[in-house]
């Protein structure tokens, strides 16, 4: 800790990052920092209060630094965004509404454990300590949910039912063949399975019993945050954090309707009239994958083809390898078509695009190329890997998670792939446009759910009307927006801000504008809030155009 008069943005960033790793030991493990591999995140009320005060102190140190410029100013903006999230989460008691089917402990703990190494006896010993600590963590989680019940902040019934189904699936699996044991050194499997059977499974059973007997009877029918005490403030917080804008729900709702209408006009231009029937015919005629191996091979081949074309648009390319792997079976039933997992800092785990190979015979091919563009190249893998290579920046910048920037870039990458001519045919372009329309619709249904008192059925019907999603896909998506308010809106908002920054730079620079140079500058500072990104690109464009800085 710096002494009086010795503080600096570098010192604040370093202290912030060390604090983040210490308070989130599972994340530290995933990043390749193994100092805390024997611990789990403290979910007690005292821990939330402690984290809130620590975030406020770091914020005070930031404010005391005064005006900053260049990369230091970007660092301050990135830190402020993340510190505000911790402060507001503690103030709003978000731990009381943490029950969900996307990243609750029935999902997050297996994912975290899958990243835990087992290179030697020390790793295994630390893994066992984590299993021993899990009942205590679950106890605090249940206390938090109980406090939520007492404050009339129960989750919607559909969410409770989904979590209970996940828990039953988890408990029905033999510990020895579960993700908690599978892949560990054979000589330790019995000890690990015993620890799982004696600690992890009983903790899950305690959660299931609590949900079944206490929580489900008091769950709510209304699905939106508007129905909770303080729900309007929670939603405003979620919008600020996920979109890094000050837009209101009404503004975002209208933005989604306008953007959806624009994209649907693009769809009409591609498929002709009547749009609905023609779309259905295209989708019905689209070939599916023969089996899991064929689907995985197609994704890998597409990623390699995209990789070969990257030098056309990027002067700096990632050196971290990309893997295309099948999604773990404990995820695929409730996951989208593909997800990206960041590389570890120690180089042991490359960037990985996990492909959902569940029921490949039902997976249409038209979605594949846009998914590769978004999740892999030139999307998440390129952006995140380049950020990790910015060794002159603090670790907190290289590893920053700013949803609006990263998902906005993923969406932009889908459009860029089209501009680059990467899509192999009109069916792939159709997949891109359908995906873009789906993300625009998210703005409408998210605000509809959480601010405008839409029912779940109304939201599902809206998605079905404006997409080619199946009923099951629409239900999964809507249930995701219920428990992740505003997260789904970050995609379209981020893309629109990136496109707006590019258009302004092109207008200012005229013939001097280079899309390749724009991409290099955009990605040269890592993920950042959208207002910061607009400032950075504007300063770059003015300097390149010889215009005095304002």
Key terms:
3 strands; 3-stranded mixed β-sheet; 550 residues; 23 helices; 3 domains; mainly alpha
What is this structure, in a nutshell?
With 550 residues, this protein is mainly α. It has helices at 9-23, 25-31, 45-64, 70-91, 105-114, 121-150, 157-171, 189-215, 231-243, 249-271, 275-285, 292-309, 329-332, 368-375, 380-388, 395-398, 403-419, 426-450, 456-465, 471-483, 490-509, 515-522, 530-545, and strands at 322-326, 338-341, 351-355. It has three domains: 9-236, no CATH class; 237-491, no CATH class; 492-545, no CATH class.
Describe this structure in words.
By secondary structure, the chain is mostly helical. The protein folds into 3 domains: 9-236, no CATH class; 237-491, no CATH class; 492-545, no CATH class. The protein is built from 23 helices and 3 strands. It has helices at residues 9-23, 25-31, 45-64, 70-91, 105-114, 121-150, 157-171, 189-215, 231-243, 249-271, 275-285, 292-309, 329-332, 368-375, 380-388, 395-398, 403-419, 426-450, 456-465, 471-483, 490-509, 515-522, 530-545; strands at 322-326, 338-341, 351-355. The longest helix has 30 residues, at 121-150. It starts with 8 loop residues before the first helix and ends in a 5-residue tail after the last helix.
Mean pLDDT: 95
- Secondary-structure class: mainly alpha
Uncertain runs are none
Computed over alpha carbons, the radius of gyration is 23 Å
**Count of discrete domains:** 3
Q: What is the end-to-end distance? A: 36 Å
Considering DSSP H and I runs of 4 or more, what fraction of the residues is helical?
55-70%
Strand content: under 5%
Secondary structure: number of strands: 3
SSE sequence, one letter per element: HHHHHHHHHHHHEHEEHHHHHHHHHH
């Amino acid at each position: 800790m710096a002494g009086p008069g010795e503080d600096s943005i570098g010192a604040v960033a370093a202290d912030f990052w060390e604090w983040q790793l210490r308070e989130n030991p599972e994340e530290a493990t995933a990043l390749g920092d193994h100092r805390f591999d024997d611990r789990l995140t403290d979910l007690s009320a005292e821990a939330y209060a402690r984290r809130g005060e620590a975030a406020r102190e770091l914020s005070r140190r930031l404010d005391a630094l005064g005006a900053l410029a260049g990369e230091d100013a970007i660092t301050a903006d990135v830190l402020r965004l993340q510190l505000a999230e911790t402060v507001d989460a503690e103030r709003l008691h978000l731990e009381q509404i943490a029950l969900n089917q996307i990243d609750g402990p029935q999902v997050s703990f297996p994912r975290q454990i899958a990243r835990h190494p087992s290179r030697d006896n020390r790793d295994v010993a630390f893994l066992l300590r984590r299993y021993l600590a899990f009942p205590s963590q679950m106890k605090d989680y249940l206390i938090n949910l109980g406090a939520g019940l007492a404050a009339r902040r129960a989750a919607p019934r559909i969410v409770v039912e989904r979590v209970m189904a996940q828990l039953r699936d988890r408990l029905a699996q033999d510990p020895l063949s579960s993700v908690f044991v599978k892949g560990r050194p054979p000589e330790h499997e019995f000890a690990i399975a015993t620890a799982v059977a004696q600690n992890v499974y009983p903790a899950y059973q305690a959660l299931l019993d609590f949900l079944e007997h206490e929580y489900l009877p008091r769950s709510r029918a209304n699905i939106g945050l508007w129905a909770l005490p303080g729900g309007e403030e929670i939603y405003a917080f979620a919008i600020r954090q996920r979109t890094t804008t000050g837009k209101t729900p009404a503004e975002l709702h209208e933005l989604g309707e306008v953007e959806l209408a624009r994209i649907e006009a693009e769809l009409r231009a591609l498929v002709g009239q009547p749009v609905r029937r023609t779309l259905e015919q295209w989708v019905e005629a689209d070939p599916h994958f023969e089996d899991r191996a064929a689907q995985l091979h197609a994704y890998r081949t597409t990623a390699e083809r995209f990789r070969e074309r990257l030098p056309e648009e990027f002067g700096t390319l990632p050196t971290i390898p990309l893997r295309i792997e099948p999604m773990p079976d404990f995820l695929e039933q409730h996951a989208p078509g593909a997800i990206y997992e960041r590389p570890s800092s120690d180089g042991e785990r490359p960037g990985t695009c996990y492909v959902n190979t569940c029921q490949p015979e039902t997976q249409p091919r038209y979605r594949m190329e846009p998914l590769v563009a978004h999740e892999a190249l030139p999307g998440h893998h390129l952006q995140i890997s380049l950020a990790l290579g910015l060794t002159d920046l603090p670790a907190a910048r290289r590893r920053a998670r700013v949803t609006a920037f990263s998902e906005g870039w993923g969406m932009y990458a889908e459009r860029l792939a089209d501009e680059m001519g990467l899509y192999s045919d009109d069916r792939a372009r159709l997949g891109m446009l359908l995906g873009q329309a789906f993300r625009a619709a998210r703005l409408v249904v998210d605000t509809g759910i959480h601010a405008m008192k839409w029912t779940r059925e109304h939201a599902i019907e809206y998605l079905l009307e404006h997409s080619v999603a199946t009923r099951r896909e629409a239900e999964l998506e809507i249930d995701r927006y219920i428990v992740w308010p505003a997260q789904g809106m970050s995609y379209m908002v981020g893309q629109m801000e990136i496109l707006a920054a590019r258009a302004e730079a092109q207008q200012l620079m005229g013939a001097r504008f280079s899309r390749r140079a724009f991409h290099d500058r955009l990605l040269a500072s890592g993920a950042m809030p959208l207002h910061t990104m607009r400032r950075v690109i504007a300063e770059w464009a003015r300097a390149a155009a010889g215009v005095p800085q304002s």
